Amino acid sequence: MEKRHISSEFRLALALAIVKGRGRSKVAEQDAHWKKKARLYKQEIKALRQEVQEMDGMLLNRGYCT
After folding, report:
1. pTM of this structure
2. d(Cα 62, Cα 66) in Å, to the nearest integer?
3. pLDDT below 50 — which residues of the chain?
4. CB count, 10 Å around CB of 48?
5. Where are the domains of the chain?
């Protein structure tokens, strides 16, 4: 079987492709993490707004506000 010589340029290109691939997966992982956090914050804000509206309605109904 013939042994082939792998050029240093090919090795460099291969190494760069591997690094880029790992970088993309890491970026995608971080992107998913921050999207999840943003979704959780939006849900929390929505719940807080609803609470404020309910409290505001209760105060107005009882005549506490002038």
Report:
1. 0.51
2. 11
3. none
4. 10
5. 35-66
